[in-house]
Structures are given as structure tokens and as C-alpha cells.
Amino acid sequence: MSLTFYSINAASNADLKKIKADNVEQDGLGLPRRYWAVLSILLGTFLGNLDAAIANIALPTIAHDLSGTPATTLWVANAYQLALAISVLPLAALGDMMGHKRIYLTGAIVFTLASIICAIAPSLHILIIARAVQGFGGACMSTVVPALLRSVFPQKIVGRGIALLALTVALSAALGPSAAALILSIANWHWLFAVNVPLGILVVTLATIILPRGRGVHRAFDSIGAILNALVFVFLIIGVAGLGNPAGDTSATIEIVVALVLAIILILQQRAHKTPLVPIDLLRIRQFTLAVLTSICSYMAQTIAYVSLPFLLEHQFGRNEVGTGLLMTPWPLVIVFVAPLAGRLSDRFEARNLTTIGLAVLALGLSLLAALPADASSGSIAWRIALCGIGFGFFQTPNNRVLLTSGPRERSGAAGGVMTMARMIGMTMGAALAGLMFKLNAGHVSQAALMLGAGFAVTGMAVSRIRG
């Protein structure tokens, strides 16, 4: 009997040690390994976000050097965004199935190799194809980054990891135009892509050595859903881009309608699928779904402002392109300082209170910009734009924390994918609405667009308040 008791007790102790070991693995990395892991994750994030916009500055030069029309050259930017959009949900599913580290590493390698091809591209068509491949690599990295941060940080301070992600995205947005201008002042446009190569190699090296391996969950991949998802975004993005073409109203409208029909078919197909691409299990969680809706509203508000502010500053306030760029900089720049504070607060206080405050500040800032007089000084414009950045930065981290932690840890990849999709949907819808308003060409259209953005921020506040 004593031998039996000893065996049971030894087995219990072994189980207890296994549980403790699993908990240690699940509750983040120790120091200093966590610092190196965060560096490898955020450096990849910085590269992906910087490259999404850095080529825009050089589009006229690229068109001249490679003998391309403006409409064709625009696909140097669009190909990256389109590849990113259609890849997010499939890659989120693959991340949960195969392990997030594997997807991240694949993305970093593809991104680096595609950067080499972009840098030596002899023709515009090869450059566009390479940019699409680069966008796929960027999607691999950005989609699983939230899940990787959740695995690296202990649960009680995961908000700080999400804050660092927001800071990195804001910093890349703030530095993008300046970095592009600096490179182009001393070298040709090929170097916009060549500078990615040494940094990409560093990301691959660090991620291989430092990041936790993670374990995937066996489930079937929904290939039909992936195809439908891709078609939805192809038609949606091309249709929204066509709204800005005065002669393309009919075709753009048809493309958007086709996208909506395909989206309905996708939803019906997903509801009948055993392992759907769209994470329906997470969308059944009230907190998660409301956080997604709030995120969409916030990005619609931000994108409407980003589209309308340059027109307001140049056409009505008489600022030149350089002045407009400088006045727009406070928005992403203040997020660099606000995000760490928001991250710490999100680990201590209820998310809906923090997100409500952030969206209220964003709505106030947009309203104050819409009410500016025609002779407004640069200082009065700049502090209002900074106020918008403070509000958006204060909202983003606690809301993303809810998105990432509402579901089980093994669904972190899917949660990160939905986080990215919410951003893309909000930005696409915001751009479409702003484009429609400018096409109407009514008086004070920029101010009206800013008030519409403020309205979406207020809508986001309302949705945020009904969370449990």
C-alpha cells in the first residue's frame, strides 16, 4: 500500500512539474531573452510597415526610369497592399496550424529575397510582381506578430507588448516619408528596397535563434474560403481605387457590388465549414466582436482624416507640400509617446473606459480641425492634429489588448489576423467614403469629411461602452 501511495505521489509530482513547465512556457519568456525576441519581432514589423509606404514617394521617378504610365506605376504600391489584404486570414489560420514562428520566419525570408528583386528590377512589370511577393512576405510577418508578442510577454503585462507594437507602427509611419526623402537625396530609387536586405537578414537570424518554437493545432485548411476571401479583396480594393477615376463610376460600382456578393457567399460558406477561415468561434465572443467593430470605426475615422487633411491644408489654408507633410507628422509622432502609457494603463484598468476616452479625444480633435478658420496659424493646426494622434494612440492599445486576449491562447494567430483585417476594412471603407465625398465636390468638403470622421469616432465610443 505504501508503495502504491508512493507511486501515485510521484506521478502527481511529475504531473505538477509538467504543468508548471507548461505554464512557464505559456506565460512569456524570461529576461534578457524577451528583449531580443521583442527586437526581432518589432524590427520585422517596422520593415513591413515602412515598406508599405516608402515607395510611394518615388513613384514619379520610377515611372520615368522604367517608362511606365502613372496608372501602371501606381500598382507598385497597390500590388503590395493587395497581396497583404488577401493573405491575412489564410496566414492567420496557417499560423495557428503550423506555429507562428514558422510563418514569421517564412515571411522574413520571402520579404528579404523580394527586396533584392525589387532593387535590381529591370522593368516595371517585374518590379510590380516583386512588390506583390514582398507584400506576401510582409503579410506573413504582420499577421502573426500579435500572437508572437502574446507568447513572449507574461499575461499580466501583455498590454505593454501591444503598446510597443503600436509604437513601432506609428514610428514607421512617421519616419517613412523622411526616410524615403533622405535615401532619394543621396541615391536612386533602387536603394529604397536595397536597404531592407541587411535588416531582413538580421531579423531572420534573431528570429531563428530567439523566438519560441510554439506548437500548432491540427486542423484542416479551408482552401475554398481562402479563394473567396482573395476574390472579395481583389474586387473591393480595385473597385474602391476606381471610385477616384471620373470615368470609372460604373465599373467601380460593379466591382464593389461583386465584392459584397462574394463576401455574403464567403460568410455562408464559412458557417457551414468545420474549420472556417474566418474565426467564427472568436466572433461569438461578445468582447471580441465589439472590439473588432470599434477598431473598424476608429480606422474609418483616421483614414477619412488622412485623406481629407492634405486637401484642407493645401487648398484652403494655402500650405505647400512640405508644410502639409510637416503639419501631418504630429499625428503618428505623438503615438510614439502615448502608446507606452496606454499599454501600462491597459494592464491595470478596464479597456472600455480607456477606449472611450481615446475615441472621445479623437472626435474632439477632428471636430476642432473642421472648425478652424481660414487664417489659422500652423501652431493652431498642429496641436489639433496632435490631439487626434493622442486620442487614437490612447484608444488603440487597450482595444487591441482585448482583441488579442479575449480568446484562448491557441487562437492568438486568428485573433491577430482579425486585428489586421479590422484595420484594412476600416481603412478601405474610410478611403471609399472620403473619395465619394470629394467626388460630390460640395463646398467645404474637407470640413464635412472631418466631421464624418468625428461621427465614426463617436460611433466607436458607443460600441465600446456596451462591452461587458
N to C succession of SSEs: HHHHHHHHHHHHHHHHHHHH
Q: How many structural units, i.e. domains? A: 3
CATH architecture of the largest domain: Up-down Bundle
Oligomer: single chain
Can you count the helices?
20
Report the average pLDDT across residues: 82
Categorize the overall geometry.
globular
Radius of gyration: 23 Å
Kindly report the name of the CATH homologous superfamily of the largest domain.
Answer: MFS general substrate transporter like domains
What's the level 1 CATH class of the largest domain? Mainly Alpha
Largest sheet: none
Note the gap between the termini.
Answer: 52 Å
| Amount of beta strand | under 5%
Low-confidence stretches: 1-25
State the total count of DSSP E strands.
0
Sum this structure up briefly.
The protein is mainly alpha-helical.
Name its key features:
468 residues; mainly alpha; Growth Hormone, Chain: A; 3 domains; globular; disordered N terminus
List the helices and strands and how they pair.
Elements: H1 2-26, H2 33-54, H3 59-65, H4 70-73, H5 75-98, H6 100-120, H7 124-152, H8 158-186, H9 191-194, H10 196-210, H11 223-242, H12 249-271, H13 280-283, H14 286-316, H15 321-328, H16 330-346, H17 351-370, H18 378-405, H19 412-440, H20 445-465
Question: Can you offer a commentary on this structure?
Answer:
It is a single chain. The chain is mainly alpha-helical. The chain has three domains: 29-214, MFS general substrate transporter like domains (Growth Hormone, Chain: A, Up-down Bundle); 222-274; 280-468, Growth Hormone, Chain: A, CATH 1.20.1250.20. Helix content is 81%, strand content 0%. The chain is built from 20 helices and no strands. The longest helix is centred in the middle third of the chain and has 31 residues, at 286-316. The protein is globular and about 60 Å long. It starts with a helix and ends with a helix. The relative contact order is 0.12. Residues 1-25 have low confidence and may be disordered.
